[in-house]
Write a structure and sequence with these properties.
Blueprint: H1 6-9, E1 13-15, H2 26-53, H3 60-87, E2 93-95, H4 96-129, H5 134-137, H6 140-158, H7 160-166, H8 183-187, H9 195-228, H10 233-241, H11 244-266, H12 272-297, H13 299-309
Antiparallel strand pairs: 1-2
Keywords: Cell membrane, G-protein coupled receptor, Membrane, Olfaction, Receptor, Sensory transduction, Transducer, Transmembrane, Transmembrane helix
GO cellular component, one term: plasma membrane
Transmembrane segments: 28-51, 63-88, 100-122, 142-165, 199-223, 244-267, 273-294
Length: 316
């Protein structure tokens, strides 16, 4: 009998899922998704424009916010091709190599976003703990190095993922559970042991997202300790208020992430539609809401945006 190699099993493409069990309803999602992507680009583009145009916003906090905005747009653009393909053009097939490429960028920018949130927590800690030396500690060079370190870390931890997937033989269903490619989604279709993939994915989650969450909590514990040591109640509230936007950004990132993880682990009995909605919320909600949160909660950005859209008054 002929021995079949992994390449004999491998598929050249996968089938993405729009609305599970209701493909005829896919067009109903086209316009809401288009609206969300438009909001993402406009919102984050406005944040970047405002920070670039206003010299008073050329400070470490806003440089990190710029990095977050670029990361949000990049993460959204990673899912855009397959989303448009399914919901706008009703084309659900994606080439194997294209799927792996999308997988790399989605996971990569997810790790980058987590690293940026840690950097922003460190920024808030320095600003509150040592405000007089804040600009001299977080110089342009330090911020650039932090940004480069976040990118390098993301590349290093996600780089093995495409190779781990490509080594697997696929002989079962070609249908993925989501409208974009994820590592944990693709490896379920393999007809060989995925222990290495599962172990590596667990290690990455623990030592990137998990460790980042602990570092953010530790930063805020130090921030709270510092704030409680401030004598004036008004100054305490002012210090805490500078952290509200970042706290909201952290919650927007980690709550959907925890929700998706819990549903994947313990919600197998739930409707596939719920899985689809949670997965899309996890990737689409933070890029849409982050610029809104920072526009509403950050006085300097809010004032500058209002000035941008107000008609210029003529001289008397």
């Amino acid at each position: 009998m002929k021995n079949l190699s992994a390449s004999d099993f491998n598929y050249h493409s996968f089938i993405l899922t729009g609305i599970p069990g209701m493909p005829e309803k896919n067009p109903w999602m086209a316009f809401p998704l288009g609206f969300l992507y438009t909001l993402t680009i406009l919102g984050n583009g406005t944040i970047l424009t405002v920070i670039k145009a206003d010299q008073s916003l050329h400070q470490p906090m806003y440089y990190f916010l710029s990095i977050l905005a670029v990361t949000d747009v990049s993460l959204s653009m990673s899912t855009l091709p397959s989303m448009l393909s399914i919901f706008w053009f009703n084309v659900s097939e994606i080439a194997f190599d294209a799927c792996i490429t999308q997988m790399f960028f989605i996971h990569g920018f997810g790790v980058v976003e987590s690293g940026v949130l840690v950097s922003m927590a460190f920024d808030r800690f320095v600003a509150i703990r040592d405000p007089l030396h804040y600009p001299s500690i977080l110089t342009h060079g330090v911020i650039a190095n932090i940004g480069i370190a976040v990118l390098i870390r993301s590349f290093c931890v996600v780089f093995p993922v495409p190779f781990l997937i490509k080594r697997l033989p696929f002989c079962h269903s070609r249908v993925l559970f989501h409208s974009y490619c994820l590592h944990q989604d693709a490896m379920r279709l393999a007809c060989a042991s995925t222990r290495v993939n599962s172990l590596y994915g667990l290690i990455v989650v623990i030592f990137t997202l998990g460790l980042d969450a602990l570092m953010i909590l530790f930063s805020y514990a130090l921030i709270l300790k510092t704030v409680l040591g401030i004598a004036s109640r008004a100054e305490r509230l002012k210090a805490l208020n500078t952290c509200l936007s970042h706290i909201c950004a952290v919650l927007l990132f980690y709550i959907p992430l925890i929700g998706v993880t819990m549903i994947h682990r313990f919600g197998k009995h739930l409707s596939p539609v719920i899985h689809m909605l949670m997965a899309n919320i996890y990737l689409l909600l933070p890029p849409v809401l982050n610029p809104i949160v920072y526009s509403v909660k950050t006085k300097q950005i809010r004032r500058r945006i209002i000035q941008m859209f107000q008609p210029r008054k003529g001289h008397a």
